[in-house]
UniProtKB/TrEMBL annotation:
<protein>
    <submittedName>
        <fullName>Uncharacterized protein</fullName>
    </submittedName>
</protein>
């Protein structure tokens, strides 16, 4: 999601999601939300807030994704086109960000 206030949004999303998490950790600009059977990584950059959700199954994945999008909706107005979900599979987070920055064709998949 493109936003000039990514770090602030990440903090607010974590605060709103804390009741549903086992733990919330931080490493550099990444926030890691541990849900037990799933985890979400929020990475703030100068121009955007990137999300990555990994889960044991699709139902849990969808639930975490809905929680994150709902948290965003309560914090700020988010146009539908502003949130873009990309399939990642086992592709490293860095590669996803590079692909979005360069707008290259995506070789990965779910």
């Amino acid at each position: 999601m493109r936003t000039p206030h990514a770090e602030c949004l990440a903090e607010n999303v974590c605060a709103r999601s804390s009741a549903y998490c086992r733990s919330i950790g931080a490493h550099s600009t990444d926030k890691l939300l541990d849900f037990g059977a799933a985890r979400a990584i929020l990475r703030a950059t100068d121009e955007a807030l990137h999300f990555r959700v990994e889960a044991e199954d699709f139902v849990i994945f969808s639930s975490i994704r809905t929680l994150l999008q709902g948290s965003l909706a309560t914090i700020t107005t988010v146009p539908d086109a502003a949130v873009e979900w990309q399939p990642a599979g086992s592709v490293p987070f860095r590669a996803i960000r590079e692909r979005l920055e360069n707008r290259q064709n995506w070789p990965g998949g779910r």
